Amino acid sequence: MNNQIDRRTFLHRCVSSGTGALVGSLFPASLLQGSSLFAPEATICSVAGDKIFDNTMRAVDALGGMKKFVRKGASVALLTNSVFDRPGTYVNSDIALAVVKMCLDAGARSVVTIEDTPGSYWKRSTVAAKLSREIGMIGRSREKKDVAFARGKSLKEGSVSAALLTADVFINIPIIKDHQGTRYTGNLKNMMGAFSSSTCRRCHFGDQSIITQIFQGYYSKMELLSQSIADLNLVRSPDLSVADVTEILATNGPSGPGRLKTPMEVVAGTNALAVDMYCVRHLGLHPDELLVIQRAQEQSLGPGSLKEVTIITK
Description:
Layout: H1 7-16, H2 20-26, H3 29-33, H4 35-38, E1 43-48, H5 52-62, E2 75-80, H6 93-105, E3 110-113, H7 119-123, H8 132-136, E4 138-140, E5 144-148, E6 157-161, H9 162-166, E7 169-173, E8 177-179, E9 183-185, H10 187-190, H11 197-205, H12 210-215, H13 222-232, E10 240-245, E11 248-249, E12 260-261, E13 265-269, H14 272-279, H15 291-298, E14 310-313
Parallel strand pairs: 1-14, 2-3, 2-7, 3-4, 7-10
Antiparallel strand pairs: 1-13, 5-6, 8-9, 10-13, 11-12
Helix pairs in contact: 5-6, 11-13, 13-15
């Protein structure tokens, strides 16, 4: 495998490993704070229809194919929203399994899930029997490492999946759905699944005591939660995002039950924030009204408008 990395990848890994102070001494602040690090040129592709496995492949192919993202011998970490089991609350396993197959076909050395994805999740796929060998090759990563958020505003440190830091390729696979607190969940919110429960609690409550937390609502501090989610996304941006907008929960998220919508879209993109901005329309929302998206834009995690995004529809 080619072990050379470009400037952007090097900076990403320095920030991820908590060496922001060292990077700051080597590079000017304007470079570290600029969009060149966190907001590459964004392209997304939306493919509609009921052939979900095939449509996932078509969406990634439109971006240049998985070999554009996964080189032969690469290690791949997947973050898939798979912990719920009600309709519209979890990523259709056909989407996740299509991503796995594309990674392996591209020559990936290993594919691991960051969240503790249950084995039953893969069995829900319509192609589970056909791809049993590929399912057997999917590993799990449970190790966590402490990191510093060099540019964090609400969070300055946390504990994150070791695989997120060390994998050659990171792919975020969220479902776009309603969320009681942040109004929607997608790529940005899905990043909480890569972090420890204690780090996630601080996203909701800061440094408040357990006693105080008990008497406050879980979503009582929306400014804190929104900024904290943006801070979490500073640790590492996905190399590829593949969002499920096939059957989604339109009310009473994130766990439901609630009203369902069936846009029947798979949306792949090179920038996680851009994918979220494009997909929230299916929930009757506009990016400008969502605090999480605003805070992510302020952290230069993606475009300020969809006018800056190349959008392909099929």
